Amino acid sequence: MAPAVSIVMPCFNALEHLPRSVGNVLGQTLPDWELIAIDDGSTDGTRGWLEQQTDPRIRVLVQANQGVSAARNAGLVLARGEFVAFLDADDTWEPHFLQIMLSTLRASPGAVLAYCGWQNVGLAGGRGQPFVPPDYETNAKLETLFVNCRWPIHAAMTRRNVVLAAGMFDTTLKNSEDYALWLRVAMAGPLVRVPQVLAYYHFHGGPQATSQIARAALQHLQAQRHFLHEQPEFAQRLGIRRIRTLTLGQLLERGYQAYWAGDIPAARSIFRAVMQNAYGGPADWAHMLPCWLPERWHLRLLQWRRAGRNGSPHASRR
Asked: The whole model's pTM is what?
């Protein structure tokens, strides 16, 4: 008999985190699930740990390393549940996540996806307050979702047939693959909000999908442009000026975020892409133009500017 929910978990060198994440699934108050864990070419013992699990609801798929999108797609092909949820191997849910999300979707037969609140755990400086997103099922739903990804991948549950019809995950994307999928899913029907914090994104010292700032920003733009190409009516409704604001304007904002955070290499990559698309005002270009200099010269220019603001050309040496 098919389970109600299929949980798809891509795993790459996740041995350190699996006891917590898989244990979290085992502790769910809803027992009617299957966990499809995809070992995506791990070299740290992930496969051995997964294959030692004795709960018959855990299914293990082993493949050569192909990336998170291909791993999730492989899991979706094997999935048997009417509903599907995605949980990365280093994240967790509240124990009643599956129960609440499933009951919400079953109570809304026309809805294609339910999303909930979440919290970032492990950020330095006491950051990471719980966040419950607003109701996105409005007349501006598609434009709002087009701006950026509104929930992490594990803060949602959707219908498997809708995900399959939407083409699953774009394997050309290393970032924003979930954003691209949710846009296509949102075209298929209503979304429903669960106003509770039920998902937790755990920050740690290892590599995570959000660590490559420039790549994430540029692939987000790629996903936006792909969606506009697929949905010409939506693009026409927005108009060229609004499209540039929502795509290149967002890219410019991400460049500034990297710049003011001191991540100059990421800012340089993003700003160059903005300039190549002839976007931004004079003040923006004053910030961006030095990005065409060799990075060493650019950094020296920034040091000189900081020293000048401090009132002495030697201030940075004090």
From this structure: 0.89
